[in-house]
Amino acid sequence: MEYQVLMSFPGIGETTAVRIIGELGDIRRFKTHKQLNAYVGIDLRVYQSGKHQMKDIINRRGNRHLRKILFFMVKTMITLRKKIKNHLVEYYDKLKTQPQGKPHKVACIACMNKFLKLAFHLITHGKTYDYEVATNYS
Q: pTM for the whole thing?
């Protein structure tokens, strides 16, 4: 079921789907999408001390191979934006065109977060990706 769900996303091929499943294992072992983000290592690390607060950065404790696969997957989706409608690419464009637009890597990490959230929902509910339905859950 996971394979069919991942293959239903535009921009994900057979190799990428198999690599994601291989690195991730059974996605149903996570109770929430936040646990999944922590496993991948894209959850935010907050550092505070007194009045000093560092800017939020990703916590790179997770699976670096999966993080790399997802990053290149998002880059591929951005490259294929003209061929197939994809709400992740629309979200990327929205982040980049804000008055103080996000840098490329920050926007890609945000898209990875959104992808994991959507994939977690679709796999746990046994549904495939549909552009019209996905915009409601993202």
A: 0.86
